[in-house]
Each structure stands twice: as structure tokens, then as C-alpha cells.
Amino acid sequence: MILLRTKRIKIIGFSTIMIFALVLLFLYLIYAKQTNAVLVNYSNMKQIAHNVYVEPEINESEKAGLINYVQLSTVKINALFGQKE
Questions:
Q1: Any alpha helices (H) in 1-85, and if so which ranges?
Q2: Bridge partners of 53?
Q3: List of the chain residues with pLDDT < 70
Q4: Cα–Cα distance, 31 to 39 (Å, whole number)
Q5: Beta-carbon neighbour count of residue 49 at 10 Å?
Q6: Hey, which residues does 49 pair with through a beta bridge?
Q7: What digits encode the pLDDT tens for the residues 52-76?
Q8: Which residues, 6+ apart, have CB-to-CB distance to 38 below 8 Å?
Q9: What does the alpha-carbon distance between residue 11 and residue 17 come to, in Å, rounded to a whole number?
Q10: Measured CA angle at 50 (ends 30, 57), to 5 deg
Q11: Using CA atoms, how far apart are residues 56 and 47, in angstroms rounded to an integer?
Q12: pTM metric for this prediction
């Protein structure tokens, strides 16, 4: 009787740990990972502003439009949330 109870507790404990591990693995696999831009220096991309990189073939009007869009977005975000500290 005692043997069955300890075996049952071991099975329940092991099952709980396995379910927890599987849930963590599932959450890790579906979590959106951040883009790592370490190799930008080794690519053909050119930096036109802080954290803004473009292909070298892009024309100047598109670059200006992109920089303008980033600046407007920064102003809107600062107005909404305040300055970054």
C-alpha cells in the first residue's frame, strides 16, 4: 500500500515537471525573437540615420521619405509616451 502511494506520487511529480517543461518549450518556440543586426557592417546596407539602414541602390527621395517617416514617428511616440530616459 505504501509502495503504491510513493510510486503514484513519483509519477504525478514527474508528469507535472514534464508538462511544465513542455509548456515552456512551446512558449519559447512561438515567442517572436528580436532581429539581431550585428552583421550590418558586413552587408551592403548603408546607415542613413541612427538605426536606419537601407540598400545602396535606393534613390535619394526614398531615403528622405524614410528619414522623414522615422522622425515623424519619433515625434508621435514622444508626444504619446514622453521622452525616453
A1: 2-30, 60-81
A2: 47
A3: 1-4, 32-39, 41
A4: 23
A5: 12
A6: 52
A7: 888 889 999 999 999 999 999 999 9
A8: none
A9: 10
A10: 90
A11: 9
A12: 0.49
